[in-house]
Design brief:
Layout: H1 2-18, H2 20-26, H3 33-84, H4 89-105
Helix pairs in contact: 1-3, 1-4
Length: 106
Amino acid sequence: MISLLCFCIVAMSNFSLVLTKHRKETIPQNITLPNTAYLKASAWLITMLSLVVSVIQFGWSIGPSAFFGCLTIAVLVVVLTLTYQARYLLHITLISAIVGVIELLL
């Protein structure tokens, strides 16, 4: 469940970094347009990966519901981080990615 939540946080923060306003608040240097396309593609891939993880962990009966629940919590975390402490979004994303991979491997 922790890996699912961590992957959802990484995906939602990638989606938010595609937008110019959020990118300027969190990343000091400018990112070119092809890099934002990579961010969007990675966000979709990580979202699909988290759906697969939830189905593997919980099965088809509860997996999609757990996925949407974790996605909702991840959106809440990203929105609150962007609202109050936008400069910490990259730190939260990196920590979530590391914890998610470690949890998935264990």
